[in-house]
Design a protein that fits this description.
462 residues; Heat Shock Protein 90; Beta-Lactamase; rod-shaped; transmembrane; alpha+beta; five-stranded antiparallel sheet; Helix Hairpins
Length: 462
């Protein structure tokens, strides 16, 4: 497996590449501009010589009069030791050369108004060509001037050589400097890593301090601390859940074992064995319901509960449930009332289960002569449903944990009554799976559960 370079190495390499790229661009730009500058200087020098020579030669009538201007041409063109000059007649004869052995390739004789150059025996020459019209018709001269600019070429060769050397040295220095800067800049990240490495399931209470961290690392550390907090809450909830499961299952198992042991202490009749088995069956059914409820909550925690989204008249569902519970309510002298209408998008079976839990609780804690009221109201983009019953007020310290698993307010239930304390937790999971919310308010002998669902039009495609 190929080992990937460390972040420090990658940052130092990026720093080196960036700095080297900038220096290379600056060096090439300087080299290009310098070359253009020297070319302009050469062009200007040649242009001046050409203009002066043209003014001098322009006074001639014929090409054979050029010899009379020899001293002046030697003074004008011979003072510059790097300058070569040739004056040609219209037929190509060389009428004047300075120095006398100066040779300029014939291909440049027609390249007027352009700067040309060529290499000759390791020397670079740059020149210009001009045509001089004489006074007599049909008479003209060709003037060629060339400067030896080999020293310019040598200068730029040395400049490029030192540029590449300096670029290599700067690349090495920038790599080392980048490594130091990256290592220093990443020191807070290493400190965070060291602290994170000490975190375990037994030390989830620890948090990484954010005050001394750079601004760039604070969002990362804040997210990490938030993750630790969520993990801590999850571990605590899991530990409590495991303890609650063990406690809740221990009671019926103990009852089953005790009852079975008592039955087996002596021989009994067939009817007695049947009664014992029916009693054990009731406990087993209660354990099976508890296990089903725990599996439902586990699925809800992992987002596996996906309700169907179908149009549902909430008032019709409430009427069916009240008809189902009416006989039981009449036996206890409790009145059931419903009001309001509302349309939502949801899963009828799941909502039936959630509302059944609320109605069962209301019937359990409502005394004879009381009345349970179910009210439905449509608000702005949502449908509100409330289940209200008279009975003992729930103390404020219990309201915040009322929807926790296995949490029961009544001491008798906490000591192992028939209520497992999962109904309200399931109800909350179902409501939240439908995109709704649930809360409980209890005061002055009235307990009210309030549910809010998105209205059918606001619930998305059905």
């Amino acid at each position: 497996m190929i080992r990937r370079p460390s972040l420090t190495t990658r940052l130092s390499l990026l720093f080196m590449l960036a700095l080297t790229g900038v220096l290379l661009a600056v060096g090439l730009t300087f080299n290009l501009l310098s070359r253009e500058h020297f070319v302009d200087l050469d062009r200007h020098a040649l242009h001046e010589k050409l203009q002066a020579s043209q003014r001098l030669l322009g006074g001639l009538r014929r090409a054979d009069q050029l010899e009379a201007l020899g001293p002046q041409l030697h003074t004008l063109l011979g003072a510059h030791q790097d300058l070569r000059a040739q004056i040609l007649a219209a037929d190509g004869r060389v009428l004047f050369a300075e120095p006398s052995e100066a040779a300029i390739p014939a291909r440049f004789r027609t390249q007027t108004h352009a700067l040309w150059e060529w290499w000759e025996e390791g020397r670079l020459l740059r020149g210009m060509t001009a045509q001089v019209a004489l006074a007599e018709p049909g008479q003209s001269l060709t003037l060629l001037l060339a400067l030896d600019v080999t020293h310019h070429a040598d200068f730029f060769a040395a400049l490029e050589r030192w540029l590449w050397i300096a670029l290599g040295v700067c690349a090495l220095l920038s790599a080392g400097l980048g490594w130091l800067v990256a290592r220093s800049g990443l020191r807070p990240l290493r400190e965070v890593t060291q602290v994170a490495a000490t975190v375990s399931a037994r030390s989830l209470k620890e948090r990484i301090p954010e005050a001394a961290l750079p601004v760039e690392l604070r969002p990362l550390v804040s997210s990490f601390n938030g993750m630790l907090e969520r993990l801590d809450e999850s571990f605590v909830r899991l530990a409590n859940f495991s303890a609650d499961i063990a406690h809740e299952l221990r009671t019926p198992l103990t009852q089953l074992m005790t009852h079975t042991e008592v039955v087996l202490t002596r021989a009994r009749s067939l009817e007695e064995y049947q009664d014992a088995l029916y009693a054990n069956l009731d406990d087993l059914k209660r354990m099976a319901r508890m296990i089903d409820d725990m599996l439902f909550l586990a699925k809800a925690d992992n987002g596996l509960i996906v309700p169907a989204r179908r149009p549902l008249a909430l008032h019709e569902l409430v009427d069916k449930l009240l008809d189902y519970y009416r006989l039981l309510a009449e036996e206890h002298g409790i009145a059931l009332q419903a009001s309001g209408r509302g349309l939502i998008a949801g899963d009828e079976g799941m909502l039936r289960r959630a509302l059944s839990n609320l109605l069962s609780n209301a019937l359990r804690y409502t005394s004879a002569g009381g009345s349970i009221r179910v009210a439905i109201a449509e608000g702005e983009g949502e449908v509100m449903l409330s289940v209200e019953n008279p009975g003992p007020s729930i103390p404020a310290e219990h309201l915040g944990r009322l929807f926790d698993r296995f949490y029961r307010v009544a001491p008798a239930d906490r000591e192992g009554g028939g209520n497992a304390g999962l109904g309200l937790a399931i109800t909350r999971s179902i409501v939240e799976a439908h995109g709704g919310r649930i809360r409980c308010a209890s005061a002055d002998g009235i307990t009210r559960f309030e549910l809010a669902f998105p209205a059918a039009m606001a619930a998305g495609p059905l």
